[in-house]
Structure formats: structure tokens, C-alpha cells
Amino acid sequence: MPDPQHLDQPHPDPLHDELLALALAAADRAATLLRDGRPADLGVAATKTSPIDVVTEMDLASEKLITDFIGEHRPADGFLGEEGAGSPGTSGVRWVIDPVDGTVNYLYGLPSWAVSIAAEKDGEAVVGVVAVPMRGETFQAVRGRGAHLNGEPIRHRPAPPLAQALIATGFGYLTERRAAQAEVVRALLPQVRDIRRGGSAAIDLCDVACGRLDGYYERGLNPWDHAAGVLIADEAGALTGGRPGLPAAHELTVAASPGVFGALQPLLDDLGAWHD
Fold it and tell me: What keywords are assigned to this protein (predicted)?
């Protein structure tokens, strides 16, 4: 597990160091559980918005492990988790947790899934950790202190022209939304190098941060999908947002190298990527 103390900061914030250490430890424990404890007959435990929006028993086990571990160390903190963890807390700190980002990939045995943990202080994300165990990678960021992958600083990719940009996206679970998203892809694809669909928003955001993608966009993300990844992308020097002038949100999340972002965000707005 990377040591948060190696990060340079003129005036370290002890709270941020504490939150980072807890996020790293919790993500490491959850990633180990998910990687080593996946049953051979893993099946769907429940569905949410549609029959293809699934929850497995391991999603539930991972979220419980994370919330129990953090709660033991910081019992006054709040939680917002994808699988139902929710409490306001009294400390001003809230943990935003996706216990398995990329559940369908995990269900099918594909490697692109992650554990995503962000810590917010007074409503602002200050720490983000995304563990991708099948790649042996842990991304981390502290607001104002840069982004790191396995302890090494990372930076966004130099921006190419939009026509040479590799862009990732994701699709929702509702039929009407998927149809609208397909129309956006149809219009966008001829204007970029290519489009990828990896299946994990957290990983896509981190891949923008470390230069493996030029940009990423998606409609329909929830806070647990993007809280850690957006902070990591921001701290790696990428630009993030939603519709022009707005932050990343359920309506639309965009992250890209600065030069690509300036072209991609208004284009997505014109194409209606923000509505069904």
C-alpha cells in the first residue's frame, strides 16, 4: 500500500493524511476480499434500475467491510455508498464509496473493476483512492497535492487535436437512455480517433489522469461513481466538469486533457449528451 507520507506539501493537513491512510487501507482490504474471495458460482443478488443493473453478494460484502473499517476509526463520519450505506455523521467528513465500480465486469470475470473511495470535508472531495486490483494499481489524490499511481506522480496526456483523441464513455441501464447515448456515439465517433467503453467510470477517470485516454464522458453517474476519480483527474492536471460552466454531475460528467476538454465539452453539449 502506498505511503501517504511521501507526498510533498508545504503545510500538510493532518486530517487529510489521516483520511488518505484510511482510504488506502480500506480500499486495499476490499480489493483483496473481492479478488481472492470471489466465488466460482458468483451470481446476481439483486437488481436496481433495470434487469441489467445488478448487485452481487460481493458488492454488499465489500461495502460492509469498508464502512465497518472506517467506522471503527472515525465513528462520527458520514457515509454515502452505492449499496445503501447512508448516514449524515457529525464530523463534517463524509465517505463516498463505490464498493465495486464495474460490477458487470466483475460478474463476468473481466478485469476492469475497481474499489472507489472518496472523503469529503464540508461537501468538498479532499481525498480520493481508486484501487484496480487486477491491474495491480492504486490511484490516489489529495486536494492540492497532486495525483499518484502506486506512489509515483501522474499527469494527463498532452492534448492532441480532437480528431486524434481517444475518448472513453459509458452507457446507462435504462433502454431509453441507452438509445440516446447510442445516438451521441454515432455523431461523435467520426470526429475523434476512436471511442472506448471499459465499464468502470472510476477507471476511465483515472486513465485520463495517467495519460491512457485523452478524454472521457458519461451521463447518469452518481456521486460514488465519480467522486474519487474526478479528484484524481483534477489533481493530475486534467479538466473536469459537466455541462459548460457546471461541475461533474448526474446530468453529465466530462474529463479530458485541457486542450481536448475545450473542444469536447461544448461538442457533447451540442449533441445533447446531457439528456435522454
Answer: Hydrolase, Magnesium, Metal-binding
Tell me the pLDDT band of 95, cut-offs 50, 70 and 90.
very high
**Domain boundaries along the sequence of the chain:** 4-153, 162-271
CATH class as words, domain 162-271: alpha beta
Instruction: Name the architecture of domain 4-153.
Output: 2-Layer Sandwich (3.30)
Predicted structure pTM score: 0.94
Predicted pLDDT at 274: 97
Spatial distance between the Cα atoms of 13 and 9, rounded to a whole number of angstroms = 9
Other C-beta atoms within 10 Å of 26: how many? Answer: 25
Longest dimension (CA), the chain: 51
Residues in the chain: 276
Average pLDDT, the chain: 94
- pLDDT tens digits along 114-168: 999 999 999 999 999 999 999 999 999 999 999 999 999 999 999 999 999 999 9
Residue in 167, 194, 77, 171 with CA at minimum distance from that of residue 127: 77
